[in-house]
Amino acid sequence: MISSHSREAYSLGQIPITPSAMATQNGCKLCAPLGASLVFKGIRGAVPLLHGSQGCSTYIRRYLISHFREPVDIACSNFAEQTAVFGGGANLKTALENVSRQYDPALIGIATTCLSETIGDDVPMFIKEYRAGRNAATVPPMVHVSTPSYQGTHMEGFHAAVLAVVSALAHDGTAGSEQRVNIFPGMLSPADLRHLKDIVAAFGLKAMVLPDYSETLDGGLWDTYQRIPSGGTSVEDIATAGSALASIELGHTLASRTLTAASLLEERFGVRAIRIGLPIGLRQTDALMLALAEVSGRPVPPRFTEQRGRLLDSLVDGHKHVNTIRAAVYGEDDLVAGVTAFLSEIGITPVVCATGGRSRHLTAAVQALVPQKRHAHITVLEEADFAAIEAAVAAVQPDVIIGHSKGYAMSRRLSIPLVRVGFPIHDRMGGARLLHVGYEGALALSDRLANALIDQRQAASPVGYTYM
Amino acid sequence: MGTAADSKKEMLALDGKDPGTVRRKLLEKYPPKIARKRDKQIVVNRIEPDGTVPEIQSNVRTVPGLISQRGCCYAGCKGVVLGPTRDIINITHGPVGCGFYSWLTRRNQTDPEASPDGHNFMPYCFTTDMQEEQIIFGGEKKLRQAIQEAFDNFAPKAIAVFSTCPVGLIGDDVHAVCRDMKEKLGINVFGFSCEGYKGVSQSAGHHIANNGIFTHVIGTDDTVRAGEFKINLLGEYNIGGDAFEIERIFDACGLTLVSTFSGNSSIDQFANAHTADLNLIMCHRSINYVAEMMEKKFGLPWIKINFIGAQATAKSLRKIAQYFDDPKLTERVEAVIAAELPTVEMAAAQVRPRTEGKKVMLFVGGSRAHHYQELFSEMGMRTLSAGYEFAHRDDYEGRRVLPDIKVDADSRNIQELEVLPDADRYRPRIDECRAGELAAQGLQFSEYDGMMTEMVQGSLIIDDISHHETERMIAMFKPDLFCAGIKEKYVIQKHGIPLKQLHSYDYGGPYAGFKGAINFYEDIDRMVSSRIWGYLKAPWQKNPELTAKYAFE
Lengths: 468, 553
Ligand code: SF4
Ligand code: SF4
Fold this sequence. Notes:
A: 468 residues; Rossmann fold; B: Rossmann fold; 24 helices; 45% helix; globular
């Protein structure tokens, strides 16, 4: 067993290790309030509010917007220099008041920035004070999550917000009293969330998906003005999460957390917690199907068996293109773990698995998901930046790189094709519509992988073959 | 007051809508206190015979909870002013996000081959990525190591450090660290205390950046380069290749560009910018401080020019020729204009049948909301309403109001440097008599008349427009095109109205100079003529009987 340390690369095999650096050069992680904002965007009628100075909310908005290509409103308590000295209570209350008035929100989700965290603002107390002077019926529920980015990345912010929402709102229910399942999907694309909801519905179950930004961050044009884009999981559904048959949380690296939304519901209401990896690829999707079959007491609907068949068929068709290929994968811990599992299923060796994340659980996840005989060829990097990732990738020269847009420079310098997955994708259209999960997601991913390789071979061929 | 013709123009200005009603609709949702504040930032334009315009409140803090377009001081300093220089390693001292979000997002271009060493650090993002330990025990040690690492790995000739919000609170002395490292490494290392909470917007960061470059870089190299008619271009950031087009025109005219602040720039150019003979200011808001300080210290005068718009470009070139007053230069400038303008005018004529009379709104930045009105008017498009995101009163009303601007608590903390003439190097380029002569001929030094003086009577000016007001404006006017940034893009487009990003130009550019104008006409033509907006409703939504009919058949 390999132990986890920060800022290090673990070689499961013989690959040279990148020395740890002090500064971060070309980071492979974003900051915590971004993850929290994303979660709040997945709740119906919610408005995220950052407690700090306006730059953070502006930057985070522009970043989310450039990926989703949708409006993303995030309010801010807008610190001034004096606020930074005397604390942000008054600013937060003004902001709460103005957000309530303009949006009439169903929920205000408050995340802190590094500034208010450094000051040590007591946000729960400010909220209490704000509510105290007002009629409870007219004030929307508020959820506060502490998200200092000097403690965690966007994924820590994301998971902390999911937990905070459930902890603050879920106060009702008798476990199993409804044909319903809670899904905590982790940070997936709107297309993924839609697909997951379809899958759960096919088992005759209702789903409470938190967060569900499948509509709020991937909607159609408006014929009437929508103050807050429609869609998302309602506050009421979250409130009664305790009556579900089970909670399914996706992501192996959640094991690094002592308390998660699912484990909290188990503690509070006795709702069974099931943890599986992100359903990327064959076995991980099988696990989801089995879990749902078990929870619902119904067999897996035939259409999924058909989808699985089509996936296998395409893998057989495409195997000449992908077999024995070597790949580098980077991104969020759980996404990397999921993609890695899938790669190893289809005969691609994941020679570099890297994350900027700090769950310190990726190594264990990769070890569990990839057959042991391949471990010798794999380098896992945790808490890595692109300087480290590129050094590792350059050392092993894989055939393909899989990850988000920030790896493009590396892909270009090394002349290795990049297949885009995850977040952020701001140099291609449709980043938010990429499907990663389920048999269909695996099919889409394997087609794109095979096509990237074919494309490169085709471009490199002196003849210009059209029959590959 | 106005004549009949004037009032007709005014009718047109707001599409015949009553300005009072429009303002009321913008403000009605706000609580009284905020409405009162916003009221002073929303003004109906009126140019008096003496050229004065109404006062507009600007550069004041955005109300918490109102969603604004604005960014922070750090964004203005590191992102805007210093970001486009290719050979300085910029280290963001703070947690990871601030640096990540400002990593190559502005589409500044650069030509590394223009420097002998070929350095280009713009595609990199360096940050100390502060962790809890630094927040508690201080981050100076980590910063020192980060500077050392950057030096060891890249051997740059300069390193700059930018502080983000937490740094100011924990009290790291970045300037002391920079001084030490400068001595140790023997290269220029300098820091900026541009914590995001300072000032009210990016604008504070511009000022801090100006102060820093002036103090640490400008005038550090007295080499006089060869060439005639030496100019600096200030406030041009080479978004989408604008600077390349302007450089092409300068070359054609025989002008020698010593430095650009800071599009397609190298730190070496800043170092001897003081050897030029004229400063040209493009974006007044972000860079006027450098021009003012260079004038005081080295005697370089500045004039306001604008290379957005073909006519504006021609006019600006003529101003430069007028200043140097050399027949050879004047002749060359006229030859360039004569060679370039007809093609541009032809391009404009081609799009005009589709763009003429279309309505546009511009809410962006600190100069572009003004400059781009030129390009639109060349296409026959009308500006209904405009406003800046972070400008000051002088950018709206002209520098004549400078003495009247009240300095509030937010701006008072941004240092004004005390600048005196340099004992050896102060050299006034023209004497007062000559300056007076030129002024009489219409060449104004140290002047900018602002946006409002050039806008139609009765148009609506909105400073720091909020999200809510944007929605209202869209609903009331249904403009044919809206200009802002990426944060506004998709909300506007949800209403079926195209949005042109004037920060980053979407995927296009250059839009400056002559060739840029043609690009712009074509891009805008495509946007306002796109048919997609007509398909907003499905046939069965437009016409419910349709479904019934087919069902019946
Ligand atoms: S200060 Fe913290 S929260 Fe704000 S952008 Fe920087 S890392 Fe993110
Ligand atoms: S922390 Fe401060 S410097 Fe960083 S983005 Fe936020 S406001 Fe700007």
